[in-house]
Design brief:
The chain is an alpha/beta fold. It has two domains: 2-173 and 355-371, Rossmann fold; 187-353, Rossmann fold (3-Layer(aba) Sandwich). It has helices at residues 13-27, 68-82, 96-107, 121-124, 133-142, 151-161, 186-191, 211-224, 238-247, 263-268, 284-291, 304-307, 322-333, 336-354, 356-372, and strands at residues 2-6, 31-36, 50-54, 87-91, 114-118, 145-148, 168-169, 197-202, 227-232, 254-258, 272-275, 296-299, 314-317. Helix 3 packs across helix 5. The structure holds ligand GMT. Ligand GMT is lined by residues 12-14, 17, 92, 119-121, 149, 172, 203-204, 208, 279-284.
């Protein structure tokens, strides 16, 4: 099939899922057309069957805010005609599914089937804002297929938006051939030359991710277990987290690495991943860690309990309860055998429930269904 994909090309989870989906579809011989304002972050090399169409947003002195939604709609319609798209898949409702609705309307009576995948904050934060709610509801209802990345998010969409359409839950996925357990390579030794345990947090450092809690947890752990903390990513809370590391006197052992391309390697060199988010519709990075045989300590919020079973792949802890997170981290890091067993079970879960080979066919079936519909 010829599939258009629109997403935020930046560091967020929805852009990562969209890009990885595009790569998996291309591997399966589909022709994939990314329609975005910049090349997606993880599309770092040329791949057969993948094409990139830039959305240029012109500015004029009159515009305080250049109308990206319109520029995107125009580009979607152009690409749909030129490339004979069978389906257009929008990741993150705002504003992508609104643009897709406009593109579809421009092309009538020619069909342009549209799929919208809801990822999280498009529903729980931004979309629920009164100023965006009606148009988000409208654009979801106008999509030909709607998916959400967890049952939690599907239920939140129904309760917040009262949408009258069906929503299919298609969980996020991981490629278990690319996310691999630590192979004994040198990176672990480089990070922790004294054999210290390595804790890791990966996020966009928005307040919702609670990176300060990560530092709080680590400051307790390092008092009892020699360890280092990797803080990967960047965003508004980074400087607060750096300040807190200094306050707690652990700044030499907390490494703020910024945005990195080698996430898989960094995670698999680690022993434990911390994700103490306030809300999380899925928690993709927890799944990536699980595929790398790295146990996780995550908040018991949103869709995370659908990904992580307490005591199996790691632990679920109430958000903000840093004492309990630290207790669980110490329990695990202090017991080599338990850490290893939990890591193995985590990878097994990733392979059995969330492997790309199981999830991608669900999207293919959805595309075929809506592209075939009159
Ligand atoms: O929270 C982020 O890091 C970005 C955000 C996004 O929309 O780009 O992530 C959301 O989508 C991810 C991929 O489906 C999910 O794994 C995240 O849980 C979700 N974030 C939230 O719900 C806060």
């Amino acid at each position: 099939m010829r599939i258009g994909i629109t997403c935020y090309p930046t560091y967020g989870g929805s852009g990562i899922v969209a890009t990885e989906l595009g790569k998996e579809l291309a591997e399966r011989n589909h022709e994939v057309h990314f329609i975005t304002y910049a090349p997606p972050m993880r599309l770092d090399q040329a791949v057969d069957n993948i094409h990139f169409h830039e959305v240029e947003v012109r500015s004029y002195p009159l515009f305080d805010h250049p109308p990206y939604t319109l520029a995107l709609a125009t580009r979607m319609a152009e690409v749909a005609v030129q490339q004979k798209l069978d389906v257009l898949h929008c990741h993150y409702a705002i504003p992508h599914s609104v643009s897709a609705y406009l593109a579809k309307s421009m092309l009538r009576p020619k069909p342009l089937p549209v799929v919208t995948t809801l990822h999280g904050t498009d529903i729980t934060l931004v979309g629920a804002d009164r100023s965006y709610l009606p148009i988000t509801r409208f654009s979801i209802e106008q999509s030909d297929g709607v998916t959400s990345v967890s049952n939690f998010l599907r239920d939140a969409t129904f309760s917040t938006f009262s949408v009258r359409c069906s929503i299919e839950v298609i969980y996020n996925f991981v490629n278990c051939d690319l996310y691999l357990p630590h192979s004994g390579g040198g990176l672990r030794h480089c990070i922790a030359p004294g054999g210290e345990k390595i804790l890791i947090h990966v996020s966009n450092f928005r307040p919702v991710k609670r990176p300060m809690d990560v530092v709080e947890v680590y400051s307790r752990v390092q008092k009892e277990i020699p360890s280092v903390l990797l803080m990967v990513g960047d965003g508004p809370e980074r400087s607060n987290a750096e300040w807190l590391a200094r306050e707690r006197g652990v700044e030499k052992k907390v490494h703020f690495l910024g945005k990195r391309d080698d996430i898989g390697e960094l995670i698999s060199a680690s022993h434990l991943l911390l994700l103490p988010s306030e809300t999380e519709s899925f928690g993709l990075v927890a799944l990536e860690a699980m595929a790398c045989e790295v146990p996780v300590i995550v908040s018991r919020v949103g869709g995370l309990p659908e990904v992580v079973e307490d005591g199996v792949e790691g632990f679920l802890v109430e958000p903000r309860n840093v004492e309990e997170m630290a207790r669980r981290a110490l329990e695990l890091l202090g017991d080599e055998r338990r850490l290893r067993d939990m890591g193995r079970r985590a990878r097994r879960t990733a392979r059995e429930r969330f492997c790309a080979s199981k999830i991608i066919p669900l999207y293919e079936a959805l595309y075929a269904r809506i592209a075939g519909a009159p």
